[in-house]
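Quick log. Single chain, no ligands specified.
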Amino acid sequence: MAKHVAFLRGINLGARNKVGMAALRELVHGLGYDDAATHLQSGNLVFTARKAAAQTEAELSKAIEAGFGFPVAVTVRTVAQLRTVVEGNPFAEHTNEPAKLMVVFLTKKAAVKGLDPDDYAPDEYAVKGREIYLWLPNGSHKSKLGIAFWEKRTGAVGTLRNWSTVTKMLELAG
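-> predicted structure:
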């Protein structure tokens, strides 16, 4: 059994896609996963499963749509994978501004070609496997490098988390 961290995209945004965290934990237990814990109301979940992360990703997404009535993109990483994300941060000098330091978690490896980083300055990005690190000095709301930008260019589904949430999820997962 391995600990997994799941990031759900687009739930509890205003009046849309409401998912109670207690109901989400119950759904996870119903799938046979153990030790489910949530962080905040935005779809951050830790659980233990015998299955591989990719398998739980698909299973969770399907179960959430069936249980709550709308599709939700889910990305899952093992604790070891999430630790690698944290330790591999190419913008470590900016961890003191965690709201401006983001990670895009994608469902498949990112193949990004033909982008000129100067076109997005002062924002910066670094692609590493299935993650894209973002340093957004003016904040995420003023950036062109949101989740839709990356999904369009990679063909992958994903979700975005700030550095505080990423490190908190690693802490929760142990």
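The chain has two domains: 2-80, 86-173.
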